[in-house]
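>> received
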Amino acid sequence: MSEAQEKDKRRISGVRFSPGLIIESNGVPIMRVSDILKVKGNALYTVPPTTTFHDAVMLMAEHDIGSVVVIEHEEVVGMLTFREVLKALNANEGTLGDTSVRLMMDEAFLTCTPEMHIDELRRLMLERHARYLPVVENRRLMGVISLFDVARAVVEAQGFENQMLKAYIRDWPHADEETASGDIRL
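>> returned
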């Protein structure tokens, strides 16, 4: 290993890399949905479409979550988020009623895959005003990504970049350091 490579290795020591995180040639991590799911954990809340709207809202409140995935015959058929809850409360003059989730859920929901790049996901969520996206691979539900999860991942990635830049600056040669030939090292 060359001296420059050793120095680069020392420069990034102490910086945590997520297992499986791919690093671009410029040193910037390529973050994917699967990386967020690894950090987030595997808590997942689902209901069948026959669940009463009241019970689904109580589940959301009990677990302090903003969405539940609606599953029928082992497939994602809808999403119930606080947006649908607010619409229903408005339509029902402030009551939840005893209707089923099927009548209140969003059937035109977006999904993403574990391999989707975080920038693509962020753009999709912002353009379509989606706060929650089921992560689906081969028709199997892998998790749910929220806009909060994406924002936290971006902040952590920026923190990583800041650490890299600070390490680079800290290791930058000083002007008073000279090489054997008398030239200033850059």
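>> DSSP finds seven helices and seven strands in the chain.
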